[in-house]
Amino acid sequence: MGRFKTLDDLPEDLTGKKVLVRVDLNVPMQDGTVSDDTRLRAAVPTIAELSDRGAIVLLLSHFGRPKGQLRPDMSTAQLVAPMHRLTGRSVRFIEDCQGAEAQRAISTMLPGNIGILENTRFHEGEEKNDPELAKGMAALGNYYVDDAFSAAHRAHASTEGITHYLPSFAGRAMEAELNALERALGNPERPVAAVVGGAKVSTKLAVLGHLVGKVDHLIIGGGMANTFLAARGVNVGKSLREDDLTGEAESIFERAEQAGCTIHLPYDVVVAKELAPNPPGVRVCNVHEVEDDEMILDVGPAAVEALADVLKTCRTLVWNGPLGAFETPPFDAATVALAKTAAALTKEGSLISVAGGGDTVAALNHAGVAQDFTFVSTAGGAFLEWMEGRTLPGVAALEQQG
Predict the structure, then answer these.
(1) H helices of 131-221, where?
(2) What DSSP assignment string belongs to 347-376?
(3) Are strands 217-220 and 192-196 parallel, antiparallel or unpaired?
(4) Do 16 and 40 belong together in one domain?
(5) One domain for residues 381 and 288
(6) Domain limits at 95?
(7) How far apart are CA 363 and CA 396, in angstroms?
(8) Given 120, 145, 172, which residue is the final one in a domain?
(9) CATH number for the domain harbouring residue 265
(10) Rounded-to-integer distance, Cα 160 and Cα 51, Å
(11) 393 domain-assigned
(12) How many CA atoms lie within 13 A of 118 on its CB side?
């Protein structure tokens, strides 16, 4: 990973300087209020630090998918009150993210003030990475700070285009994210384990293909494991599986062998005849004893114990996706048990643990251990693309400046 500049590389005194900060304010709303403010809270350290250093802080963000239309229900004006509450500072709304109107409003702001600019996606040029829009945004400020890793996999005007016209820096959340990712897969302490779960192999094929060349242990769970078991000739009953991908699974086995990566599949499993909370007839069995009318819904206790032993030999862990149908008890047991092991090893200092993706965050919160992992990324798509080994345009743009 290339060198990138951070807030430490900006002048200490930013009094009256206008700093455009790309944040991710795209939070879920219910009845006009924010139902999960994780992303807003993540942006506060950068905003507060710049404000304390005297900058006029101008927040750029998309909100929803207005596709270039002006949609009052997708205006970032709705985020002024929540950001005011979280920062404890005066926050005002600016009715565009470029142009004379925005410039006039910003000219009346004082050092330390915070402004939220209107939804960048109200302009069609945002998603097309239109240089004219990027120039128009850049004209509002003296510096650009990117603090939105969750939007870094998209080359848009406010994430990539703008970096061509202003000195660009990583915000504190972006800096923490990039440092964590570097420690996890860029230049990790070995041995490295990866847990990859979730329902479908098809969505994670590129991730698995990249990881077998990068990690020492690849732990496959969730519905995806069934496809790998089926590729190995195991009868998985009526479990969710993707028969058209058994060939892909085979080639991942082969590549793992060449790379010296051990793939771990469950050898005991938790099965039931239906996916429902605590259904009748739940049982633990050897993976070769699944009945035709049963489905595999979680990894069994013996396999979890063996996986815990694997983690004890590792220095680094990357985790994406649950091991079982964790939203439905009792099929959350394996995910919770292994997450607790990883958290305990992290706390005692023997493991660096980095996790990411929406399901994963929910699963770790459910297990009560998210705060004990070294780093938990809330970015969904960007985290997956990083696990696939892709270059993220928003990150590359910062590195070129570095």
Answers:
(1) 131-138, 172-181, 205-211
(2) HTTS-EEEEESHHHHHHHHHHT-GGGSSEE
(3) parallel
(4) yes
(5) yes
(6) 7-172
(7) 30
(8) 172
(9) 3.40.50.1260
(10) 24
(11) no
(12) 21
Residue at 328 is within a domain: yes
Residues 266 and 376 reside in one and the same domain = yes
Catalytic residues: 39, 200, 358, 381
Q: Are residues 201 and 147 in the same domain?
A: no
Q: What is the DSSP track for 258-296?
A: HHT-EEE--SEEEEESS-SSS-TT-EEEEGGG--TT-EE
Asked whether 90 and 48 are in contact (CB, 8 A), the reply is: no
Q: 399 lies in a domain?
A: no
Per-residue model confidence as pLDDT tens for the chain (402 residues): 568 999 999 999 999 999 999 999 999 999 889 999 989 999 999 999 999 999 999 999 999 999 999 999 999 999 999 999 999 999 999 999 999 999 999 999 999 999 999 999 999 999 999 999 999 999 999 999 999 999 999 999 999 999 999 999 999 999 999 999 999 988 899 999 999 998 888 889 899 999 999 999 999 999 999 999 999 999 999 999 999 999 999 999 999 999 999 999 999 999 999 999 999 999 999 999 999 999 999 999 999 999 999 999 999 999 999 999 999 999 999 999 999 999 999 999 999 999 998 789 999 999 999 999 999 998 888 998 999 999 999 999 999 876
Place of tokens 């200092």: 349
> What is the tally of helices (H) and strands (E) in the chain?
14, 17
Cα angle, residue 58 at apex, residues 54 and 60 outer, rounded to 5°: 150
- Whether residues 223 and 266 share a domain: the answer is yes
* Same domain as 353, residue 209: yes
How far apart, in Å, are the Cα atoms of 238 and each of 75, 232, 299, 309, 311? 46, 16, 16, 30, 31
Tokens 């951070």 label which residue?
Answer: 6
Asked if residue 257 and residue 164 are part of one domain, the reply reads: no
Does residue 54 share a domain with residue 100? Answer: yes
User: Which tokens go with 147?
Assistant: 């603090």
Q: How many domains does the chain have?
A: 2
For 249, 270, 296, the CA distances from 289, given in Å and listed in that order, are: 22, 11, 11
What size, in residues, is the chain? 402
Within a domain: 400: no
| Boundary (domain end) residue, out of 148, 172, 196 | 172
Looking from the CA of 250 toward its CB, the CA atoms found within 13 Å total 9
Q: Contact at 8 Å (CB) between 96 and 102?
A: yes
CA distance 307 to 121: 45
